[in-house]
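STRUCTURE:
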């Protein structure tokens, strides 16, 4: 299949009419959001939604997020809007927060993987907003990567994964935040973060005026966001994540590098000020310590770069878990699977 690749460079959003037309015809269009690129299909056509799963190689028990541009569209999708959900919507939409609602009968079980709930978000990216406005039907969109690969934060990442497989890719350069949206559920006893993101626990607690829990990602428990159980965000080479105090992290990664004894192509991903301490050809810059927003923006780009470098093994410095750092660590721990090393 020939994929139309449309570069959006300036404020002219005219090409989005074609994109919206394709979506309304139940075709697949990848588009930028402020978090990562999404692979969109209208929610009302099961065949189009099935194709999303097929194209990505996504397990069909992993539900999709619906994207809307107007509050009225939410009323189509859910039976009840909890007062706490209303507060969060008022404060954080449009923006990188996904809220889980009881689903209405209009939402197909293909989208929700059979769950009685549906996840909805209103993106703030101007291209996403205009596309959703022109389409005027809610759009189901997972991240626009092949399943298991790092989420795409640039048009070229989407092209890498999906060229030839979908009708259109809208390329508007880099995404702002670089991590997928925070997913939250509010109708249980306590508000619960199912997937951490750049809307942090502290930000949610401030608006709700009560403690917010973060769902356990213990491998033996059933994850409340089904997607969290899969190995995600992962480059091809094994990732070793080293957590603890900075001097000990540096020491440990140096030991691990020595053990490789030059036989393997190793890459270290480190804070800017620590890069100098690694005697290794490839040291990638995760941004200065204490600025997790920069790490969030760069993370997936760097993991994809490791693939392009044909890396054999990757060592990553852990970050402090406050603020967005918590969401970055969540993704890093998943990328590392079992290979998390604690040093004190
Ligand atoms: O930032 C984002 O959220 C991006 C952009 C494109 O909007 N989308 C994204 O979608 O990250 P995806 O499919 O890669 O991740 C959706 C996550 C999965 O972990 C899924 O299990 C969870 O949301 N999810 C979807 N519907 C749910 C539901 N009804 N209940 C609980 N979790 C749900
Ligand atoms: Mg994804």
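SEQUENCE:
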């Amino acid at each position: 299949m020939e994929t139309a690749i449309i570069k959006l460079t300036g404020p002219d959003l005219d090409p989005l009419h074609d994109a919206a037309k394709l979506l309304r015809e139940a075709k697949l269009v990848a588009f930028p959001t402020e978090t990562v690129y999404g692979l969109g299909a209208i929610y009302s056509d099961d065949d189009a939604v099935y194709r999303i799963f097929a194209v990505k190689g996504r397990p069909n028990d992993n539900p999709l997020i619906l994207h809307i541009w107007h509050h009225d569209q939410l009323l189509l999708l859910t039976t009840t809007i909890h007062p706490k959900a209303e507060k969060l919507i008022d404060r954080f939409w449009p923006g990188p927060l996904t809220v889980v609602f009881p689903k209405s009968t209009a939402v197909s079980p293909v989208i929700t993987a059979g769950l009685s709930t549906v996840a909805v978000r209103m993106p703030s990216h101007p291209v996403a907003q205009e596309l959703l406005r022109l389409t005027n039907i809610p759009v189901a969109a997972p991240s626009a990567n092949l399943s298991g690969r790092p989420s795409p934060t640039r048009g070229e990442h989407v092209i890498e994964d999906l060229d030839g497989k979908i009708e259109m890719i809208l390329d508007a350069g880099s995404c702002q935040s670089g991590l997928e949206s925070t997913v939250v559920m509010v109708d249980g006893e306590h508000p619960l973060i199912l997937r951490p993101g750049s809307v942090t626990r502290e930000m949610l607690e401030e608006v709700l005026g009560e403690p917010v829990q973060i769902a356990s990602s213990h491998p033996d428990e059933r994850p409340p966001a089904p997607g969290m159980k899969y190995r995600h965000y992962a480059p091809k080479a094994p990732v070793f994540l080293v957590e603890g105090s900075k001097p000990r992290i540096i020491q440990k990664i140096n030991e691990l590098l020595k053990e490789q004894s030059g036989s393997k192509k190793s890459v270290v991903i480190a804070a800017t000020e620590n890069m100098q301490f690694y005697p290794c050809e490839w040291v990638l810059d995760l941004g200065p310590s204490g600025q997790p927003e920069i790490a969030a923006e760069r993370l997936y780009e760097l993991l994809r770069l490791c693939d392009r470098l044909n890396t054999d093994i990757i060592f990553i410095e852990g970050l402090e878990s406050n603020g967005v750092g918590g969401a970055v660590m969540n993704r890093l721990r998943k990328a590392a699977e079992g290979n998390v090393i604690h040093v004190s």
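REMARK: The mean pLDDT is 94.
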